[in-house]
Design goal:
By secondary structure, the protein is an alpha+beta fold. The protein has three domains: about 400 residues, TolB, C-terminal domain (Neuraminidase), CATH 2.120.10; about 130 residues, Orthogonal Bundle (Cytochrome Bc1 Complex, Chain D, domain 2), CATH 1.10.760; about 120 residues, Galactose-binding domain-like (Jelly Rolls, Sandwich). It has 18 helices and 40 strands. Strands 2, 19, 20, 21, 22 and 23 form a six-stranded antiparallel beta sheet that branches. A five-stranded antiparallel beta sheet has the order 1-11-10-9-8, with no helix packed on it. Strands 31, 33, 35, 38 and 40 form a five-stranded antiparallel beta sheet that branches. A hairpin with a 2-residue loop joins strand 14 and strand 15. Helix 4 runs parallel beside helix 6, helix 7 packs antiparallel against helix 8 and helix 8 packs parallel to helix 10. The longest helix has 22 residues. The protein is globular. This is Discoidin domain-containing protein.
């Protein structure tokens, strides 16, 4: 999917270089308060009245002080700098601030060291969150061209966005991003080199959520294992030269922040929970419960701001008005640079913007289990504190210059409108200090250490050769290593395989060896003999990485590795043994339950005991879930399809649906994450019935898909139902009756399809446009501050009726042009599905023809019909009375 779009630039917000400022005055000396209404600064201050019906003796309100108080006033960046309480030797300096940027929420650096800034310009612009989903947020890109440490040159890379969720640099002048209430990740590229994205391509689907903007997917991150992880998603995705693949994972329990350490351990930052999550074990293996992983006292913040302005109210306030329990956290970084003291390297840091602190986390590994604590709990302090109530640290990152950058949203309100509603404690405190007036600011700070100047070498990785990129794997700064690895994998230049293998075997730099190993894995050039050599290495960290990387080889058919996993599970190092158990479990090797039981009896290390026990529980639970996940007819199709795939299809498509390697390519395409497989089922049914030859979307494969029409309808329906719902895929089931219908319609065909020919026959999903007119007989309010808009049915947010469903309720779409509509598909969720419905089409919206009548059910619903007419109107109408509303999301219209 590829199309060109316009980037909208508003003249009133055009970014200017700092050189335009008055030379005698630093831009960081300009105070936001200079443009504020001076009446706010003068007494008498307004009196804030308590909402009606408040119980002042309740824990939330007891002890509240609403004495008329001077408003909180924003100051310049250089003034705010004086508010920081830092450990000896450290300093904070601004590198970018308002008015050049507004409401910064996260940053990322690309391979040339340019800094992308996610600007959430609609976040809480008033106390009621009005306009929160207006398309006025942006992603800007900044450079320090004169190398003085200040990012003075900027451009709006991507504008007119609806509360964007993340930035992933993805090669020269390219990023990945996604908007709120959206299910698709897009790749945006600046083709003409003017600094503004002008090409938009679909990268992957199935990662979105809807609802409160604080509870949606964020921080998609390319990790050391070459998979990408995000918050709120129980799946991970991966770019390959043959497409993006998906795999299920555990729940990260994160909200705003994903980062990794020097060994690829992922950390997810919980927001409302206020604590790090997902750090115990890789979430690729599921979730594991470890009692006491947050040590006693970890949840106590040491804040210097005493306004008692936090959502839980006075029950979480100290007597002096400071916060006594972490209640919000955002952004995180494992510091991996080389221009701060060594004791910070590989330590986890995150912001608690409600407490106005940055915390350093000390982690301790005990017999394979990790326990964490505030590094400064003994002194009842934090790594960074501030006395400025507007300091809001929401992200941090190891920078190319070896220091740490901290994103400060610098604003009054830091919690979304659902928590500032009329009658709430937080709203009352915000109004007392008039903090809802402080918007539109934001600073990015550099944390430095005395005697350790920043690295002034400018990255130029996009212009470097592959051989030059290899040397960066030995860089002491983890940012350089990560970027070099990613770029080499995107380039897919295999001329460096020999050099990478040598580095993985013989380098004296442990971290370089690990990155070389994973770069080989990402180049699809990982050799089994190298893996087995590293499994025997004297360094447990190398053994662990070799075990993890070997999983890819197993997925592509190297089943002999099962014996290695069993042997490595006997390791005396609990961390190595645990990784071997994880690999054996996730790959479902034969007799995996026996391996867990024997390890449980032989190894008494705490971590090994916990992992073995909980894996056995998961295996038992999976057996129970499999029996109830699908309806009996679906389970029968899925089970038969798995048997067919494992014994026949996996030879070419790979045992894990990733494709089987053949030279530098694959024998057949991967199924995992395939939009062709998850899209309209007619594509896959016709492919199996009649075969497919030639390239697919410009990619050639060694094998040929032969016709399978000698098999019956149930055979074909089974294998397609399996591959559409396995390997991280989510598609509707294919039933024998549908296969029979397609078989009859194409009975005269006596040759294979070509891809171009087949794709012309298959109904195509119509992309929703702003000029589609959606109406409904009933629509429920979709949350605070939103409107009743039936068009929500096309997105992840969804639409539903305001009342319980009744016969005759309707939902209608008017298209601007005629189309030969052939099918609809929508997700009705688990409970609010239409009990029965019809589909009718019309040329003029007056004369209607009923084309389908269906029984609704939970999950994906489909209605198909065959009609030669081109129409502009389509109507879905309920036919049954039910106790619950009727809902639809991800509504898709298909046309031939």
């Amino acid at each position: 999917m590829r199309f060109v779009f316009k980037t909208v630039l508003l003249a009133s917000t055009t970014l200017l270089a700092f050189s335009a400022c008055e030379p005698e005055r630093s831009p960081f000396d300009v105070s936001p308060s200079e443009s504020m209404d001076p009446k706010r600064l003068k007494a008498p201050y307004p009196v804030v009245e308590l909402p009606e019906g408040i119980d002042l003796e309740s824990p939330t309100w007891k002890g509240i002080d609403l004495t008329p108080t001077a408003p909180v006033i924003p100051v310049s960046a250089n003034e705010e700098k004086k508010s920081f309480v830092l450990k000896p030797g450290y300093s904070m300096d601004p590198v970018l601030s308002e008015p050049q940027i507004r409401e910064p929420a996260s940053i990322q650096f690309d391979g040339n060291g340019r800094m992308y800034v996610l600007e959430l310009r609609t976040y809480m612009q008033d106390i009621d969150a009005n306009g929160e989903l207006m398309p006025t947020s942006r992603i800007s890109r900044w450079e320090d061209k004169d190398n003085d440490g200040v990012y003075e040159t900027g451009v709006v890379f991507l504008d007119s966005l609806v509360f964007p969720r993340f930035i992933v640099p993805f090669g020269p002048n390219t990023i990945l991003s996604m908007e709120s209430n959206e299910d698709h990740v897009y790749k945006f590229t600046d083709v003409d080199g003017d600094g503004k994205a002008d090409k938009k391509e679909l990268f992957s689907s199935g990662l979105g959520r809807s609802g409160n903007v604080e509870h949606q997917t964020s921080f998609l991150t390319w990790a050391m294992d070459n998979w990408m992880y995000s918050t709120y998603n129980s799946k991970r995705i991966r770019w390959t030269p043959d497409g993006v693949i998906h795999e299920p994972s555990g729940n990260p329990w994160g909200q705003w922040g994903v980062t990794q350490d020097n060994y690829g351990k992922l950390w997810f930052q919980d927001g409302a929970g206020g604590v790090p999550q997902g750090f115990q074990f890789p979430i690729a293996y599921g979730n594991f419960s470890v009692k006491g992983q947050w040590k006693d006292g970890f949840r106590v913040p040491y804040s210097l701001v005493k306004l008692a302005d936090f959502q839980p109210g006075m029950k979480e306030a100290n007597p002096d008005g400071s916060l006594n329990n972490v209640t919000g956290a955002a952004g995180s970084d494992v510091y991996r640079g080389d221009r701060l003291p060594k004791e910070l390297v590989n330590q986890y840091f995150y912001g608690e913007p409600v407490g106005r602190i940055v915390r350093q986390v000390n982690s301790e590994n005990v017999e394979g289990l990790t326990y964490i604590q505030n590094s400064y709990i003994d002194s009842k302090s934090e790594f960074i504190q501030s006395t400025d109530p507007l300091f809001r640290p929401v992200d941090m990152a190891t920078a190319p210059d070896g220091t740490m950058y901290i994103v400060d949203m610098y604003r009054g309100i830091i919690q979304e409108g659902n928590w500032t509603q009329e009658g709430s404690y937080l709203r009352t405190k915000i109004q007392q200090y008039q903090m809802d007036d402080v918007i539109g600011n934001g600073r990015i700070w550099r944390l430095s250490y005395e005697g350790m100047p920043r690295n002034t070498e400018k990255p130029r990785m996009y212009e470097e050769t592959s051989a030059e990129l290899v040397r960066h794997l030995e860089n002491p700064n983890g940012w350089w290593r990560d970027q070099a690895q990613q770029i080499m994998i995107l380039n897919q230049d295999k001329s460096i395989v020999g050099e990478l293998e040598k580095m993985a075997k013989t380098s004296k730099n442990e971290l370089a060896r690990i990155h070389a190993l994973w770069t080989l894995e990402g180049l699809n050039s990982l050799d089994l003999s190298l893996v087995r050599e590293l499994l025997k290495d004297s360094n447990p960290n190398i053994q662990i990485q070799a075990l993890k990387a070997s999983e890819t080889l197993y997925k592509y058919g190297e089943k002999s590795l099962a014996a290695d996993y069993k042997e490595m599970a006997k390791s005396s190092d609990p961390n190595v043994a645990i990784q071997a158990l994880f690999s054996a479990y996730i790959l479902k090797i034969e007799q995996v339950e026996d391996l867990m039981k024997s390890t449980l009896a032989a190894n008494q290390a705490q971590g090994v005991q916990l992992v073995s026990t909980q894996i056995l529980e998961k295996i038992d639970e999976a057996k129970k879930v499999a029996s109830v996940k699908y309806a009996p007819v679906e389970l029968a199709l899925f089970t038969k399809g798995k048997s067919i795939f494992d014994s026949y299809c996996s030879t070419c498509h790979g045992p894990k649906g990733l494709g089987s390697p053949a030279g530098d390519g694959l024998i057949a395409p991967a199924f995992s994450g395939s939009q062709r497989i998850q899209g309209h089922p007619e594509y896959a049914v016709k492919t199996l019935l009649h075969g497919l030859t030639g390239d697919l979307e410009g990619k050639e494969y060694e094998g040929v898909m032969i016709a399978m029409n000698m098999n019956d309808d149930e055979y074909i329906a089974s294998v397609l139902s399996y591959i559409r719902n396995e390997f991280g895929n989510e598609g509707s089931f294919v039933y024998p009756e549908y296969v029979a219908q397609i078989r009859e319609e194409t009975k005269d065909r006596d040759s294979n399809y070509s891809f171009d020919e087949l794709i012309q026959e298959v109904p195509k999903a119509l992309a929703p446009q702003d000029n589609w007119i959606a109406t409904a007989s009933s629509t429920a309010l979709q949350g605070v501050g939103s409107t009743r808009d039936p068009s929500y049915a096309f997105g992840y947010k969804g639409w539903k009726t305001e009342e319980s469903q009744e016969p005759g309720m309707w939902y209608q779409v008017e298209l601007p042009d005629d189309h030969q509509l052939a099918e609809i598909q929508f997700n009705a969720g688990k409970e609010e599905f239409p009990l029965g419905y019809t589909v009718s089409i019309s040329k003029d919206g007056n004369s209607w023809t009923e084309v389908a009548k269906e029984t609704g059910h939970a999950g994906l619903n489909n209605a198909r019909w065959k009609s030669p007419d081109e129409v502009r109107f389509i109507r879905i109408q309920s036919t049954e009375k039910g106790e619950k509303p009727w809902s639809m999301r991800s509504l898709t219209l298909y046309a031939r």
